[in-house]
Amino acid sequence: MKTTAKKESKENHMDMNLKGKVALVTGGTRGIGYCIAEKLARRGCNVIINYFRSRQSANEAVERLEKYGVECYAHRANIGNLDQLPPLFEKIHHKFGKLDIFISNAALGSFTSMMDIDDKSWHLAMDTNARAFLRCMQLAVPIMPRGGKITALSSLGSTRYIPGYASIAVSKAAIENIVKFAAVELAPKGINVNCVCGGFIDTDSLKVFPNREELLREAIERTPFKRVGLPDEVADVAVFMVSDMARWITGQTLIVDGGYTLL
To answer: Domains in the chain, please, with CATH?
Structure first.
């Protein structure tokens, strides 16, 4: 029994070993994105982190990731601008010759009610979130070998009402449906496509909500564990979804909310 248990433990460890893999994480310099990048690097994965605003933060993130003995660099690009996307993937192909893992984490949007959505807020959310995910995936797949993994990050607003979240919510719902269609179409190529939907997570992104305190109180009261989630807790699931342990999962949106949506 001890020998069997030891063997199973070793096999499970190997399934989470990403040594030699190449991953792109958009929005990978802070919050959930950085947590994912760090967990990938810790498992031996070479990591490209996309960023747009702070070069200093990106450089600091790269320095921390390289301490795990992997290759890492940061690529500046506004993923809402489709013209800036091809160079991102061309550089990955030139440097590594492949991309095994694509994690779409970067997101942006303005806070509006449904009746107040204008063209600017609509395009900001849809272009940076849903459209960018689709275009990045189209550019990633040609350099992705069999066994490749694509995972997008979503949020509870995709299926539930959150005050002021209308334009972003629509883009998140679009992402979850893109995942379903892509999963079927990319299965013959041996590529898994999934989505991780986080609940109320304690990140800087939550701080920009104008009604943050009210949302936090409701979330803590409604969640069975009586707290909000941590970036690590979402990142752990995202890394699992791009590992071989999730090879028989595709087209799914996995909710990581501590039971919030059960009540």
So the answer is: 18-249 (3.40.50.720)
